[in-house]
# Entry
Amino acid sequence: MSQEPLDAFLSQSSWTASLTEDEARRVRKAITVRSYPAGTAVFTRGTPSSHWAGVMDGMLKLDNITEEGRISTFAGVPSGAWFGEGSVLKDEPRPYAVTALTDSVVALLPRAEFLRLLHESHPFALWLIAQLNARLAHYVAQVQTDRLGDTTAQVAYSLSGLFNDALFPTTARRITLSQEELGRLSGVSRQVANRALQELQDRGAIRLGYGSIEVIDLKALQAIAREG
# Structure
């Protein structure tokens, strides 16, 4: 694969801006780029958290499957985002499965280089603290919406959350995501998700397409998420 896509991806990743030339060169050399067709596993649950990962293209989902076969999807990771730093820091078996929702390209930075950056680069360490804080705030707000909001608010929050500037800074306004998958992200059934999406479309926040959702008015979507 040509290095240009990786160079472009790294240049838009906010944490790379403060790296020294030597640090940036080491990171670029250490990264492995892999492609995953839709539906294939990027990481399986319980395997070592040996890489920090960034989505160069496509969209991934983080989920678990119960012994009864029920799927619990708790996060979507759109193009432009890095994820998995918590598990890498703790050196624990990955507590969730990661699957490609669409054909995806993923950049994999080995744990050793991630920890080297953390120990040697003060700006990177500060960025990582801010990233972890933003992720915590995101999930706290999600729990609050799930417990206190109505189903439309839950769906609106799950969708608008993919546009969190701190976590997902380059999400395209049109995303490839089925109503069933969004329902799983929102903790509601496909039928409930469908009704909520229709309401969001009627209120001018989104436009539904075949296998896709386009956000027309992000501020309106965020306001609906807070209403619940």
